[in-house]
Amino acid sequence: MLFVNSDKIKSKPLPSLSENTFLRYFSFAALYVAQGIPEGLLWYAIPAWLAMNGKSPAEIGSYVAVVGIPWSLKIINAPIMDRFTYLSMGRRRPWVLFGQLGLILSFLSMSLIADPLNNMSALMILGFIVSFFEVSQDIAVDGMAIDILPVDQQARANGLMWGSKTLGISASVAAGSWIMSHYGYFYAIVSFSLVISVIILVPLLLRERPGEKLLPWTNGEASKAAEKIQLHSWKGIFKSLYKVFFLPVSFIMGVAAFSYSFGRGLIDTVLPVFTVQELGWADTDYSQIFATANLISGILGMIIGGFLIDYFGKVRMISIYMSLLILLACAMSFLKSFWQNDIFVTGFIICFYILLTFTNIAIFASAMQLCWKRISITQFTLYMAISNLGLAAGAALLGPLKDLFNWEYVILCYIVFAVVMLVAIRFINFEKHQKRVEDLEIKHPDINIG
User: Fold this and answer.
1) With contact defined as beta carbons under 8 Å apart, do 353 and 289 qualify?
2) Band of residue 446 on the pLDDT scale cut at 50, 70, 90
3) What's the longest Cα–Cα distance across the chain?
4) The Cα angle at residue 409 between residues 404 and 414, in degrees rounded to 5
């Protein structure tokens, strides 16, 4: 027959994220590429373009400072996302769509600045708005990952997510800089707006859980699993956060994350100053090696970073990574006679950042596993805020340390914070923590009442 009764044709919906492992990995990787694109453009490509066109360091610094403000407000955004949602479309998916759609519209608006070089105020304002939606998408995607990913897939997913973001940053910096140089600012921003527009199809077409609405006007209903963990009051959110964060394992994780980030912030600040001022490198030499190290570490993290953690365990791999980082720092400090050997220093930087990336993947996966799902966004963001505080504190320590010590001893100071992390991580017991979280669910059944 040439004609078929259309009433008999039934379209089968795509599997939801909770049902399909491949779609989970693919979705989170794609969404992290979407995060890397604005980060690469806002933080690297545009500042370089401004510098190339004669803008002063003060002007560029002001632009970067304004773009960075939304990242310091993550701890405010997170409870809002835990408190409010449209459950019939999923617990986190509406916020992911909000962030992704906001990125598209704000990017397109940013492209319409007629003369950005002579309209820095508009560039800062729209850069702030783009950054706000990037942060919103980042928080929502992390929350979805914690809610949807089984524990045994979190490490591998974090490896894919970290690597995908690195590729997004690298691609947007390389391609964005080239397009701006050859065709202009407008075409660079619009080009990446189109890429982000394609990526929005991922959260647009894939449900979190089966039976949920694809769009507000389509059929579907809230998942029972999502309804069970959704909080409906501010009191419930902050009471839950207090109780879970001050469980022993969770609190130790906060201390470990702060100490690790303190050391990382110190090294991140030491290396560019050390290589330029002590070793006589050009600033472009360090930038190129740093970019190469990040690209290599991102790709390796995507391929094997998560696999190693899944196979050997989070605590064991963090312990191995931290031990190797300590050995590398010792070698760099004690082998001063090799500092004029560019191959030695370059090898140190690349190996150090590969290990840092692998450690970051393991820490993120550990933090996810420790989160209480009813406040997963707020708790995970609190860990990240503690880490960011450590990064800032470590960076600020460079000046006082350099006033007191020579470079070899400044580098050696990293070991103090790495050892604290190495010791603290040995007290992380995921099974014991999960049992205590389950006890909280039993002891405080009223905590979810609005």
Assistant:
1) no
2) low
3) 89
4) 110
User: Distance between CA atoms of 401 and 105, rounded to whole angstroms?
Assistant: 45
Please name which of 384, 39, 87 lies closest in space to residue 232, comparing C-alpha atoms.
87
The residue among 369, 114, 387 whose CA lies nearest residue 244 is: 369
How big is the chain by its Cα radius of gyration, in Å? 23
CATH 1.20.1250.20 maps onto the chain at 21-230, 239-443
Q: Are 100 and 206 in contact (CB under 8 A)?
A: no
Token digits for 183? Answer: 């065709």
Cα separation, 83 vs 429, in Å, equals 29
Question: In whole angstroms, what separates CA 39 from the centre of its chain?
Answer: 11
Q: Nearest CA to 223 among 377, 17, 28?
A: 17
Backbone angles phi, psi at 90, to 5 degrees: 120, 155
- CATH architecture, range 21-230: Up-down Bundle (1.20)
Tokens standing for residue 233 = 């009051």
* Superfamily of segment(s) 239-443: MFS general substrate transporter like domains (1.20.1250.20)
Whether residue 275 contacts residue 285, with contact meaning beta carbons closer than 8 Å, is answered with yes
User: How do residues 331-374 score in pLDDT, each as one tens digit?
Assistant: 999 999 899 999 999 999 999 999 999 999 999 999 999 999 88
Q: Which amino acid is at 391?
A: L
> Alpha-carbon distance 370 to 147, whole Å?
12
Burial class (CB in 10 A: 0-12, 13-18, 19+), 290: middle
* Amino acid in the structure at residue 397: L
Give residues with Cβ within 8 angstroms of 369, minimum separation 6: 151, 154, 314, 430
For 409, what's the count of Cα atoms within 13 Å in the CB-facing half-sphere? 7
* pLDDT per position as a tens digit, 181-224: 888 888 888 998 999 999 999 999 999 999 999 999 989 898 88
77 CB neighbour count, 10 Å cutoff: 21
What's the token pair of residue 336?
């001063």
> What are the DSSP calls for 265-308, one per residue?
HHHHHHHHHIIIIIT---HHHHHHHHHHHHHHHHHHIIIIIHHH
pLDDT in tens, 400-423: 888 888 889 999 999 999 999 999
- Predicted TM-score (pTM) of the model is 0.86
User: What is the percent of the chain with per-residue pLDDT over 90, rounded to a whole number?
Assistant: 49
